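User: For a reading group we're discussing how well predicted structures match intuition. Take Thrombospondin type 3 repeat-containing protein. Before you show the prediction, I'll give you the sequence so everyone sees exactly what went in.
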Amino acid sequence: MRKLFFVILSITVLSFYTCSDGDIINVEFDFDNTFQACGTDGLVFYKTRNDPSESLSIKISGLTIEDILEVEDDNIYEADFQLSATNVFNYRTYSNTTLPNNLFCNDIPLSEIKIKKDLVSTSGKVHIKTVLTEDDNDGIPAALEDINGNGNLEDDDTDKDGIPNYLDVDDDGDNVLTKDEKPNPNGDNDLSDAQDTDKDGIPDYLDTDDDGDGVLTRDEENQSQDQNPANDISILLPDYLNPAVATRVPATAFRVHTIYETYVVTLTVSNFNLEIISLDVFDFGVLENGKLSSSRTKVATFN
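Assistant: Thanks. Here is the predicted 3D structure of Thrombospondin type 3 repeat-containing protein, as C-alpha coordinates, for the group to look at:
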Protein backbone atom coordinates (compact mmCIF):
# COMPACT_ATOMS: atom_id res chain seq x y z
CA MET A 1 0.00 0.00 0.00
CA ARG A 2 1.23 3.54 -0.72
CA LYS A 3 0.87 6.09 2.08
CA LEU A 4 1.37 9.83 1.82
CA PHE A 5 1.77 11.87 4.99
CA PHE A 6 1.67 15.65 4.87
CA VAL A 7 3.91 17.37 7.41
CA ILE A 8 3.48 20.76 9.11
CA LEU A 9 6.71 22.41 10.29
CA SER A 10 8.43 19.09 9.48
CA ILE A 11 7.22 17.42 12.70
CA THR A 12 3.43 17.30 12.82
CA VAL A 13 1.55 14.70 10.75
CA LEU A 14 -1.57 16.15 9.20
CA SER A 15 -4.20 13.42 9.53
CA PHE A 16 -7.22 15.67 8.96
CA TYR A 17 -8.19 19.10 7.77
CA THR A 18 -11.27 21.12 8.79
CA CYS A 19 -12.93 22.96 5.92
CA SER A 20 -15.12 26.02 6.21
CA ASP A 21 -18.32 23.96 6.32
CA GLY A 22 -17.13 22.01 9.34
CA ASP A 23 -16.49 18.70 7.55
CA ILE A 24 -13.33 16.85 8.49
CA ILE A 25 -11.43 15.39 5.54
CA ASN A 26 -8.90 12.65 6.06
CA VAL A 27 -5.83 13.43 3.97
CA GLU A 28 -3.66 10.48 4.90
CA PHE A 29 -3.85 8.74 1.52
CA ASP A 30 -3.68 4.97 1.92
CA PHE A 31 -4.42 3.74 -1.59
CA ASP A 32 -3.02 0.72 -3.43
CA ASN A 33 -0.15 1.44 -5.79
CA THR A 34 -2.30 0.32 -8.73
CA PHE A 35 -5.11 2.08 -10.54
CA GLN A 36 -7.86 1.34 -13.05
CA ALA A 37 -8.95 3.07 -16.26
CA CYS A 38 -12.14 3.23 -18.28
CA GLY A 39 -14.28 5.61 -20.27
CA THR A 40 -15.75 6.31 -23.69
CA ASP A 41 -15.53 10.11 -23.72
CA GLY A 42 -11.88 10.23 -22.74
CA LEU A 43 -10.15 8.10 -20.14
CA VAL A 44 -10.68 8.20 -16.40
CA PHE A 45 -7.77 6.89 -14.35
CA TYR A 46 -8.94 6.12 -10.83
CA LYS A 47 -8.31 4.35 -7.56
CA THR A 48 -10.67 3.82 -4.65
CA ARG A 49 -10.52 2.61 -1.09
CA ASN A 50 -12.93 1.87 1.75
CA ASP A 51 -12.87 2.76 5.44
CA PRO A 52 -12.91 5.62 4.80
CA SER A 53 -14.53 5.59 1.36
CA GLU A 54 -12.58 7.86 -0.94
CA SER A 55 -11.25 8.06 -4.46
CA LEU A 56 -8.65 9.71 -6.62
CA SER A 57 -9.42 10.18 -10.29
CA ILE A 58 -7.93 11.88 -13.31
CA LYS A 59 -9.90 12.45 -16.50
CA ILE A 60 -8.07 13.09 -19.77
CA SER A 61 -10.46 14.06 -22.56
CA GLY A 62 -10.07 12.52 -26.00
CA LEU A 63 -7.71 9.77 -24.83
CA THR A 64 -8.26 6.02 -25.24
CA ILE A 65 -6.59 2.87 -23.94
CA GLU A 66 -5.48 2.17 -27.49
CA ASP A 67 -3.72 5.55 -27.61
CA ILE A 68 -1.52 4.84 -24.61
CA LEU A 69 -0.61 1.39 -25.96
CA GLU A 70 0.72 2.89 -29.23
CA VAL A 71 4.39 2.55 -28.37
CA GLU A 72 7.18 3.89 -30.56
CA ASP A 73 10.02 1.88 -32.09
CA ASP A 74 11.75 1.81 -28.71
CA ASN A 75 8.64 0.11 -27.23
CA ILE A 76 7.84 3.22 -25.16
CA TYR A 77 4.94 5.68 -25.18
CA GLU A 78 5.26 8.92 -23.20
CA ALA A 79 2.98 11.93 -23.13
CA ASP A 80 2.20 14.92 -20.93
CA PHE A 81 -1.26 16.38 -20.42
CA GLN A 82 -2.10 19.66 -18.72
CA LEU A 83 -4.84 19.65 -16.12
CA SER A 84 -7.62 22.03 -17.10
CA ALA A 85 -11.37 22.53 -16.97
CA THR A 86 -11.76 19.35 -19.05
CA ASN A 87 -8.73 17.43 -17.76
CA VAL A 88 -9.36 17.32 -14.02
CA PHE A 89 -7.82 15.68 -10.96
CA ASN A 90 -10.37 14.85 -8.23
CA TYR A 91 -10.17 13.73 -4.63
CA ARG A 92 -13.57 12.63 -3.29
CA THR A 93 -14.97 11.29 -0.06
CA TYR A 94 -18.24 9.39 0.18
CA SER A 95 -21.02 8.61 2.66
CA ASN A 96 -21.14 5.00 1.40
CA THR A 97 -19.41 2.36 3.48
CA THR A 98 -18.01 0.59 0.42
CA LEU A 99 -17.49 1.65 -3.18
CA PRO A 100 -18.14 -0.47 -6.29
CA ASN A 101 -15.23 -1.48 -8.50
CA ASN A 102 -16.84 0.18 -11.53
CA LEU A 103 -17.39 3.51 -9.78
CA PHE A 104 -16.17 5.57 -12.75
CA CYS A 105 -17.19 3.23 -15.57
CA ASN A 106 -20.84 4.14 -16.00
CA ASP A 107 -22.29 6.60 -18.50
CA ILE A 108 -24.95 7.43 -15.91
CA PRO A 109 -23.68 8.13 -12.36
CA LEU A 110 -24.65 5.46 -9.86
CA SER A 111 -27.62 6.81 -7.90
CA GLU A 112 -26.64 5.01 -4.71
CA ILE A 113 -23.26 6.74 -4.51
CA LYS A 114 -23.31 9.78 -2.21
CA ILE A 115 -20.37 12.18 -2.53
CA LYS A 116 -19.52 14.09 0.65
CA LYS A 117 -16.68 16.20 -0.64
CA ASP A 118 -15.28 16.73 -4.12
CA LEU A 119 -11.97 18.56 -4.40
CA VAL A 120 -10.76 19.47 -7.88
CA SER A 121 -7.43 20.51 -9.34
CA THR A 122 -7.53 22.03 -12.81
CA SER A 123 -3.87 23.01 -12.83
CA GLY A 124 -0.84 20.76 -12.99
CA LYS A 125 0.58 18.15 -15.30
CA VAL A 126 -0.15 14.45 -15.87
CA HIS A 127 2.66 12.29 -17.24
CA ILE A 128 1.79 8.89 -18.72
CA LYS A 129 4.43 6.35 -19.65
CA THR A 130 3.91 2.95 -21.25
CA VAL A 131 6.66 0.37 -21.61
CA LEU A 132 6.11 -2.70 -23.78
CA THR A 133 8.00 -5.86 -22.89
CA GLU A 134 7.98 -8.75 -25.35
CA ASP A 135 9.04 -12.31 -24.56
CA ASP A 136 8.70 -15.84 -25.88
CA ASN A 137 7.88 -17.41 -22.49
CA ASP A 138 10.28 -20.25 -23.27
CA GLY A 139 11.50 -20.74 -19.71
CA ILE A 140 14.66 -18.66 -20.21
CA PRO A 141 14.73 -15.05 -18.96
CA ALA A 142 15.33 -12.69 -21.87
CA ALA A 143 18.51 -11.36 -20.26
CA LEU A 144 20.06 -14.85 -20.51
CA GLU A 145 19.39 -15.08 -24.24
CA ASP A 146 22.16 -12.62 -25.04
CA ILE A 147 24.31 -15.39 -26.54
CA ASN A 148 27.13 -13.13 -27.74
CA GLY A 149 27.12 -11.13 -24.51
CA ASN A 150 27.11 -7.70 -26.14
CA GLY A 151 24.02 -6.41 -24.32
CA ASN A 152 21.92 -6.36 -27.51
CA LEU A 153 19.22 -9.04 -27.58
CA GLU A 154 18.22 -8.22 -31.14
CA ASP A 155 21.35 -9.67 -32.78
CA ASP A 156 21.17 -13.12 -31.14
CA ASP A 157 19.40 -15.37 -33.63
CA THR A 158 20.75 -18.90 -33.37
CA ASP A 159 18.65 -20.42 -36.16
CA LYS A 160 18.86 -17.36 -38.46
CA ASP A 161 15.10 -17.29 -38.95
CA GLY A 162 14.75 -13.54 -38.48
CA ILE A 163 13.42 -13.79 -34.90
CA PRO A 164 15.89 -13.05 -32.08
CA ASN A 165 16.23 -15.77 -29.45
CA TYR A 166 14.43 -13.82 -26.71
CA LEU A 167 11.31 -13.76 -28.93
CA ASP A 168 11.87 -17.17 -30.55
CA VAL A 169 9.89 -20.06 -29.08
CA ASP A 170 12.27 -22.43 -30.90
CA ASP A 171 15.78 -20.99 -30.61
CA ASP A 172 17.56 -23.60 -32.71
CA GLY A 173 14.87 -23.96 -35.37
CA ASP A 174 14.48 -27.72 -34.90
CA ASN A 175 10.69 -27.48 -34.55
CA VAL A 176 10.83 -28.60 -30.92
CA LEU A 177 9.82 -25.77 -28.60
CA THR A 178 12.68 -24.43 -26.48
CA LYS A 179 10.64 -24.83 -23.28
CA ASP A 180 10.21 -28.56 -24.09
CA GLU A 181 13.98 -29.06 -24.44
CA LYS A 182 14.57 -28.41 -20.72
CA PRO A 183 16.84 -25.37 -20.99
CA ASN A 184 16.35 -24.43 -17.34
CA PRO A 185 15.34 -27.70 -15.67
CA ASN A 186 15.68 -26.49 -12.08
CA GLY A 187 14.16 -23.09 -12.70
CA ASP A 188 17.23 -21.49 -11.12
CA ASN A 189 18.27 -19.59 -14.28
CA ASP A 190 21.59 -21.45 -14.30
CA LEU A 191 21.62 -22.84 -17.84
CA SER A 192 24.75 -24.92 -17.32
CA ASP A 193 22.54 -27.92 -16.51
CA ALA A 194 20.36 -27.59 -19.61
CA GLN A 195 19.46 -30.89 -21.24
CA ASP A 196 22.15 -32.15 -23.65
CA THR A 197 20.99 -35.50 -25.03
CA ASP A 198 24.03 -36.33 -27.15
CA LYS A 199 26.54 -34.86 -24.65
CA ASP A 200 28.23 -32.79 -27.33
CA GLY A 201 28.46 -29.68 -25.18
CA ILE A 202 25.59 -27.97 -27.01
CA PRO A 203 22.31 -27.94 -25.04
CA ASP A 204 19.33 -29.39 -26.86
CA TYR A 205 17.59 -26.03 -27.12
CA LEU A 206 20.49 -24.75 -29.24
CA ASP A 207 21.35 -28.08 -30.95
CA THR A 208 19.94 -28.80 -34.41
CA ASP A 209 20.70 -32.53 -34.03
CA ASP A 210 19.75 -33.42 -30.49
CA ASP A 211 20.65 -37.12 -30.55
CA GLY A 212 23.76 -36.73 -32.70
CA ASP A 213 22.69 -39.29 -35.30
CA GLY A 214 23.55 -37.08 -38.28
CA VAL A 215 19.91 -36.27 -39.11
CA LEU A 216 18.62 -32.82 -38.19
CA THR A 217 15.99 -32.94 -35.46
CA ARG A 218 13.49 -31.08 -37.63
CA ASP A 219 13.89 -33.78 -40.33
CA GLU A 220 13.01 -36.68 -38.01
CA GLU A 221 9.25 -36.65 -38.59
CA ASN A 222 8.69 -40.23 -39.65
CA GLN A 223 5.05 -40.60 -38.64
CA SER A 224 3.47 -37.18 -39.15
CA GLN A 225 4.87 -34.16 -40.94
CA ASP A 226 3.35 -31.45 -38.72
CA GLN A 227 6.38 -29.41 -37.66
CA ASN A 228 6.54 -31.32 -34.37
CA PRO A 229 9.20 -34.05 -34.12
CA ALA A 230 8.17 -34.74 -30.53
CA ASN A 231 5.17 -36.84 -31.60
CA ASP A 232 7.13 -39.08 -33.99
CA ILE A 233 8.05 -42.22 -32.04
CA SER A 234 9.31 -45.35 -33.73
CA ILE A 235 11.00 -47.09 -30.77
CA LEU A 236 10.13 -45.96 -27.23
CA LEU A 237 11.66 -42.45 -27.57
CA PRO A 238 10.84 -39.68 -30.01
CA ASP A 239 13.00 -40.32 -33.06
CA TYR A 240 14.86 -37.01 -32.66
CA LEU A 241 16.16 -38.22 -29.28
CA ASN A 242 16.87 -41.78 -30.40
CA PRO A 243 20.23 -42.25 -32.21
CA ALA A 244 19.07 -45.72 -33.28
CA VAL A 245 16.56 -44.08 -35.65
CA ALA A 246 18.15 -41.99 -38.38
CA THR A 247 15.49 -41.76 -41.06
CA ARG A 248 15.35 -38.40 -42.78
CA VAL A 249 12.10 -36.72 -43.82
CA PRO A 250 13.02 -33.16 -44.89
CA ALA A 251 11.12 -30.43 -43.08
CA THR A 252 9.49 -27.74 -45.19
CA ALA A 253 8.49 -25.09 -42.66
CA PHE A 254 9.06 -23.74 -39.15
CA ARG A 255 6.41 -23.76 -36.47
CA VAL A 256 4.32 -20.63 -36.01
CA HIS A 257 5.81 -18.46 -33.26
CA THR A 258 3.81 -16.81 -30.50
CA ILE A 259 5.28 -13.63 -29.00
CA TYR A 260 3.82 -12.46 -25.69
CA GLU A 261 3.37 -8.75 -25.02
CA THR A 262 3.07 -7.03 -21.65
CA TYR A 263 2.41 -3.30 -21.30
CA VAL A 264 3.27 -1.48 -18.06
CA VAL A 265 1.52 1.88 -17.78
CA THR A 266 2.54 4.32 -15.05
CA LEU A 267 1.18 7.76 -14.25
CA THR A 268 2.40 10.72 -12.20
CA VAL A 269 0.77 14.05 -11.40
CA SER A 270 2.87 17.12 -10.70
CA ASN A 271 2.32 20.70 -9.51
CA PHE A 272 -1.35 20.18 -8.74
CA ASN A 273 -3.48 21.82 -6.06
CA LEU A 274 -6.41 20.07 -4.41
CA GLU A 275 -7.11 22.99 -2.03
CA ILE A 276 -5.78 21.16 1.03
CA ILE A 277 -3.13 19.12 -0.76
CA SER A 278 -0.37 20.46 -2.96
CA LEU A 279 2.58 18.35 -4.12
CA ASP A 280 5.40 18.69 -6.60
CA VAL A 281 4.97 15.08 -7.79
CA PHE A 282 2.48 12.35 -6.88
CA ASP A 283 3.06 8.79 -8.11
CA PHE A 284 -0.40 7.57 -9.12
CA GLY A 285 0.85 4.00 -9.58
CA VAL A 286 0.64 1.24 -12.19
CA LEU A 287 -2.39 0.54 -14.37
CA GLU A 288 -4.28 -2.74 -14.01
CA ASN A 289 -6.21 -3.61 -17.18
CA GLY A 290 -6.93 -6.80 -19.11
CA LYS A 291 -5.81 -5.19 -22.37
CA LEU A 292 -2.24 -4.88 -21.08
CA SER A 293 -1.42 -8.51 -21.82
CA SER A 294 -1.67 -9.84 -25.35
CA SER A 295 0.19 -11.88 -27.92
CA ARG A 296 0.97 -11.93 -31.60
CA THR A 297 2.07 -14.65 -33.97
CA LYS A 298 4.86 -14.65 -36.51
CA VAL A 299 5.83 -17.13 -39.19
CA ALA A 300 9.61 -17.50 -39.32
CA THR A 301 11.53 -17.54 -42.58
CA PHE A 302 12.35 -21.18 -43.35
CA ASN A 303 15.95 -21.91 -44.23
